[in-house]
Specification:
about 170 residues; five-stranded parallel beta sheet; Rossmann fold; 5 strands; alpha/beta; single chain
């Protein structure tokens, strides 16, 4: 699937393409909201493919389905201990991009782990992790923050480059 705002002849246009051109050399976190899951994933992948870690892997995690595995992976990375299923999802993205879709469905404890991971991702310090973290959801996490189900600090940390794809088109 191509970049959602590609026009004829592969020319990119629209606000998403402009953001991509402006931030392609950045490791800033990416937040993709609205649209359908496959479109959010395509946008995140486009940022990965044009970014500084493009030679690394792109790892997709559906937080609705894989939250226990993500939580275990993040805990293992912080404690440097292996656990069943372990830190494979985080290490698989090492040197590339870890994209977390359906982010607002995470439990508060997992949200805190993601927030701690964001503190380490993309930095240049001795404790930094060589990866870019991106997230997506069909709704803007700001709505979940207002509802008290999503951490404001996590939303603020994720909302550096924000691509809003609008409302998903209902299936006919």
């Amino acid at each position: 699937m191509g970049f959602p705002s590609e026009g004829r002849g592969g020319q990119e246009h629209g606000p998403s393409a402009k953001l991509l051109r402006l931030h392609r050399h950045s490791l800033a976190t990416l937040l993709v909201t609205g649209g359908q899951s496959e479109h959010r994933r395509a946008v995140a992948y486009a940022f990965h493919e044009t970014g500084p870690l493009r030679s690394g892997p792109f790892v997709y995690v559906d937080c609705r389905r894989d939250e226990p595995r993500l939580r275990s992976a993040l805990q293992a990375c912080f404690t440097r201990a292996a656990s069943e299923g372990g830190h494979d999802v985080v290490l698989a993205a090492w040197g590339g991009t870890l994209y977390l879709d359906h982010i607002t469905g995470l439990r508060p404890a997992t949200q805190k782990l993601v927030m701690w991971a964001l503190d380490r991702a993309g930095g240049d310090g001795a404790d930094s992790w060589p990866l870019r973290l991106g997230a997506g959801d069909d709704q803007d996490p700001a709505i979940a923050v207002k509802g008290g189900t999503f951490l404001r600090g996590l939303h603020d940390a994720l909302d550096k480059i924000h691509v809003d794809l609008g409302q998903p088109v209902a299936a006919a």
